Amino acid sequence: MENDKGPAIKAACITLWMLGTVFVCLRLFTRKHIMKNVHVDDYLIILATAFGWANTATAIVAVAHGSGRHTDTLTLGQQGNAKFYTILSFPFGVLSFTIPKFAVAALLSRLLNPSRVHHAFLWGLPWLCLISVIICIIILFAQCTPAAFMWGGAPEGKCISPWVLIDFSIYTGAALSAFTDLYLAIYPAMILWGLQINIRKKTALSVALGIGSISCGVAIYKSTRLDSLASPDFIYDTAVLVIWTAAEATSTVIACCIPILQPLVEILFGRKILSGSSSSYKNYDYHNDRSGDMELSKIGRSGIQHTARTHTLGSRSGDPDLDSQESILPKDSKGTDRKKAQMHGRHITRTDVITVTYDDRVTIDSEQKDQGVTTAM
Question: What domains appear along the chain, each with residue ranges and CATH number?
Fold first, then answer.
């Protein structure tokens, strides 16, 4: 078994992507059936998962032809097919961990309402990663002339040094991709710690949104295995690279899904596991008009004018962890809020007051009706 890593490739890739797919399904269930709203980042995660399974499928076909075994134990036909399908799996693999970065950027742009500079930087990093990955794919298939010479499909040809691809891949993976994952994890934490909310909630939200930093470590470690692309025993030595490519992609996908799942967790466990509150989503009617997102910047449809420098955090009025200021609604003669509760036929309209202060001294007060306020987590 030491001389055959094929079973390990199949077991690792299938297990990792089954786990990733479970999280994606839970994410989609939460978005569609609990939040009643599916966003573009959800479709991007679906696309990344499709690329991941394409990577797994081609890796399995490569194993069937001998991938994971030493080259000298295979026939010439097996060597060619194993190398071809291994090479073919790489584009799907790198796209499966690049596309989720766009999903994270879309989510954070919607949640945090960043400034113009941060917005450009937030989207610029994923685009730079995608461009770099496309260049890697081009180098991969253009390093030999004709390309089929790489896997023995052509009797004659010439190739550039494999270290051209390796060096650029190290830049793309260990430097650019890892830095992007780290930035996308740290940036929301920086914003959250500037908000006047309970320290426990800050920690929980920062951990949930920053769990993508795990992908950073995986990307760096995977880059240490890229030298296998220059190995004379390519079919055997690239087995570990195939496995860690799947690991990086699934860790990124799972990290993208975890922050979205809290409404589902609250329904299943009846309390806020991450935030420590005792209230539950079960108390809400999800068939009402809801924004469908755990957005920090979204406060229903109350008509708030968001600016590039505005950072807001939606909350439920009455949450002891978040309420810190008195009501600013007009009082009636009895001292109660004039619009606190109104009855219209058989419908109840609830009014929530949202007050959030960001560290740049900007305070936003808004009034939210029809139970349209959503919490960050």
Answer: 6-265 (1.20.1070)
